[in-house]
Amino acid sequence: MTVEIRVGPPTITISQGRTFMVTTQAGEIMSSTDQGVYAIDTRFLSFYRMYINQVPLQVINSSQLTFYAARYHLTNPRIETEGGIIDEQTLRITINRIVHEGIHEDIDIANYTGKSIHFIFELSMRSDFADLFEVKSKHIIQRGREQTQWDAQSRQLYTTYDNKDFHRAMRYRILSDMPVGYANGRLRIEIALAPNQRWHTCCEMILEHGQHVRKPAPGTCSQSTRDMNATQALLTSGHEQSNDFEQRQQRWQENCTEVTTSNHHIYRMYQQAVEDMGALRIYDMDVSDEAWVPAAGVPWFVTLFGRDSLTVSYQNMAVAEGFARGALKRLAEYQAQERDDERDAQPGKIMHEIRFGELAHFHKVPFTPFYATADATILYLIILSETYRWTGDVELLKTYREVTEKCLHWIDHYGDLDGDGFQEYKSFSPYHYNNVSWKDAVDAVVYADGTPVKQPKGLCELQGYVYDAKTRMAEVFAALGDQERAQTLQQEAETLKRRFNKTFWMENEGCFAFGLDPDKKQITSIASNAGQCLWSGIADQDKAERTARRLLREDMWSGWGIRTLSRDNAAYNPFAYQRGSIWPQDNGIIADGFKRYGLAQEANHVIRGIFDAIERFDGYRPPEVFAGVQRAGEIDFPILYPAGANIPQAWATGSIFHMLRTILGLRADAPHKRLYVHPTLPHWLPDITLHRLRVGPCSITLRFWRQGEQSHWEVTEVQADHGTAQEDMIQVTGEDGQETDHA
């Protein structure tokens, strides 16, 4: 008997751009939670609930229809009214919501009591205008002045928040022409319904951010909306006057690489990832219609990030390279020009995070932007190179040559704190972030006995990133005609590789050390970071093979993926953020590293574990992190991170693309008119076809299939941009040199 299990958070999140709404399954926003309506790092609505005659409603079921739309079906408990009893479950209340700048909602109430009834429908709401950082930390401090005004004529509740020159406001407006009262913090509407009669209204939440008003798309309150196909009614309701968002989203999906496969789980997983990635696009940060910026995740990371935006760009390269172009442009604009210890900035450094809420406005937090990241500057070079490899756009290298030079200078003079040739990090900011690698939790880096490692510390994956970056930059400078610089960078990379394999290797563990501590002694903990060294290519072949075997031992392998920290470590906790949990993004990088060293079976083993988990997450949407509890069997299910993870989260979503690319062994070399493939399909993925795979000036359709124990491939179509010469066409080549393959 097959048991279908779905795991997901008890909330519904809808979003578009930098506006999002987090509610209960009943569509409510409860006090003392992180639920709410947010935009630009401010919570505009902190409590929202519906009542009939002061009695709360009950949820029947609800669903997120798209990333920007949701529907909630509610009913009533037993209610006493002046005209008599309304029996339980005799009213149907349906709420349809869409996000577009603000929030538009349609509310329908149907009477199934069999008699005429009269009642008072109430909407209760409060706004705290809390900064997102305060909501996240559950430590909210009232600073400014709030004021609420009710305008009965326009049926509008207007709440403002002002703190000196910082202004936020929310208008809640009932669009239907009907009498509405306001008292005791609740909007009150008297409703009389005959048997089987329905009542309908439209409402909108208009958000003011400084002088900018985020207003929802015009909707329709016509009664005919109720009788339309349910889903179409909702999606049409807020878009009677079409907006360019829909067109942008359609163009995004049309430009993405499409996948077809007989494995319906993989197909649905991929389709959901494409939709979620479009949902995470921050439209008001777009560089152009071909260059975009991804938010890192909803709800906490809806902004431009260094590490996250760059990692997501890498993951998306075989799907759509627009994120890379956008991230490279926007991050270059914020590249540090001088030293600023308050924000942990040094010349050439790529930022970590930027915020626009009240705390950032008054410089109560350093995110204006903040530069406390040890890896974003290195990753910038890797992504620039990868974009060049997929597009062949040498103008991109010329555009960012100065940025590149500054990144390389930072790596050698600031990333290497003591001049020993290895990367270390140390916080100079009074905010003192203890860890600024991808594992940035305050307690993420520990010794084998579980005690925390003090700064400065040099983690193993940082050395690998630098090796990869300098190897790639040697290629870049060669393409720019600077052979001398290219040769120097290649020599520096090879020197680093030799020293790394000697210094970081733990012979007794058969694994690379977590890092080096302040005394340059090995941090001998077994951690997933060692696997990322294979992705970068810095590991010697024999050490890579032994590291892979070590990471797949039971103390690291959970059955759902590789844990961030060994179960044997005294600090291990499967529910901790980065001390035993599982990250899809981390596992995707590790699997790619395994495949790089010829360990295809091991790579597929990791990918299968993560994909098995994703199949069990609600809507095939992987959270950024989940618990590292051991898998008990085929009917088991993964456990969510208890403190709440971002869903959707960009690099968790992008890990799906990354892992499929790993299975197929896609490696682009557009400057030399080549796409290399090395498919190693597992038995659970017997076939897959990529449509519209973009490499250089060509759009390619590639079919892969498994026959017996062997994987095969063929090119079924190549379309080139108008004006592309025959000699500029991309040739698909197997890693063994095979030009094409036919059944």
From TrEMBL:
<feature type="domain" description="Mannosylglycerate hydrolase MGH1-like glycoside hydrolase">
    <location>
        <begin position="460"/>
        <end position="616"/>
    </location>
</feature>
<protein>
    <submittedName>
        <fullName>Amylo-alpha-1,6-glucosidase</fullName>
    </submittedName>
</protein>
<dbReference type="Pfam" id="PF14742">
    <property type="entry name" value="GDE_N_bis"/>
</dbReference>
<dbReference type="InterPro" id="IPR008928">
    <property type="entry name" value="6-hairpin_glycosidase_sf"/>
</dbReference>
<dbReference type="InterPro" id="IPR032856">
    <property type="entry name" value="GDE_N_bis"/>
</dbReference>
<dbReference type="Pfam" id="PF22422">
    <property type="entry name" value="MGH1-like_GH"/>
</dbReference>
<dbReference type="InterPro" id="IPR012341">
    <property type="entry name" value="6hp_glycosidase-like_sf"/>
</dbReference>
<dbReference type="InterPro" id="IPR054491">
    <property type="entry name" value="MGH1-like_GH"/>
</dbReference>
<feature type="domain" description="Putative glycogen debranching enzyme N-terminal">
    <location>
        <begin position="14"/>
        <end position="203"/>
    </location>
</feature>
